[in-house]
Amino acid sequence: MSLVRRLVLVVSLALLMPTPAYAAAAPSAAPAASAILAPGDRGPAVRRLQARLIQLDWLQADPSGRYGALTTEAVRGFQAKRKFRVTGAVDRRTLRRLREMTRTPTRAELRGGGSNRPGRLDRRCRSGRAVCVDKTSRTVRWVVDGEVLKTVDARFGGSGTPTREGAFTVRSMSRDHVSSLYDTSMPFAMFFSGGQAVHYSPDFAAVGYAGASHGCVNVRDRDAIAWLFDQVRLGDPVVVYRS
Known about the structure:
With 243 residues, the protein is an alpha+beta fold. The chain folds into two domains: 44-110, Muramoyl-pentapeptide Carboxypeptidase, domain 1; 113-241, L,D-transpeptidase catalytic domain-like. The protein has helices at residues 3-16, 44-55, 69-81, 92-101, 107-111, 202-207, 222-231, and strands at residues 129-134, 139-144, 147-155, 166-169, 172-178, 185-193, 196-200, 217-219, 237-241. Strand 6 (185-193) and strand 7 form a beta hairpin. The chain is elongated, with a radius of gyration of 29 Å. The N and C termini lie far apart (100 Å).
């Protein structure tokens, strides 16, 4: 047999031989679990998710209906705690466990904040950091980059000493402040215009809207105003308006 014919025969036999196991293509990775809710989503389903996360103290913000960075981190924490795959998106396993650990959110929980329904957010509060004070809905909202992180009930000055409206900044802060003019306790005071400040009011907590301040923005939820005090910095905007 000539050399050429021998080479042809060897090549032909090689082509007919089965591919070795080690040459087979590697199996593809298992597909990721499909997300039911994911960052960037908006709507009532996101709001219900946020309300359940709040019940478990994973989310420290009011339900917004927007799946942003805070919601993503809350979901990641919930997943990591249960040794689920940590994605920040809600798959069926995550949602099922979350539902098992929580109750159906009430209307108040879905709305968030205090007992008052927040009004329209002023355009000056929609970017950056801002303490947004709405005299119409009697609320104070802490807003960062357009996302409402905390909402609390508020009351304001009486007819003789009204709370000033406009755009201000936090000029000074005093955690255990006592008014030198009225000798009253003003814990977690954040002064924005002269002697007017956002602060906790024991009287508001006790009697509600039966009383009024001397121009300050009173908050009756002590835990909430303590939290807010730790978030706010000197120079942050304070917007007092009517919606």
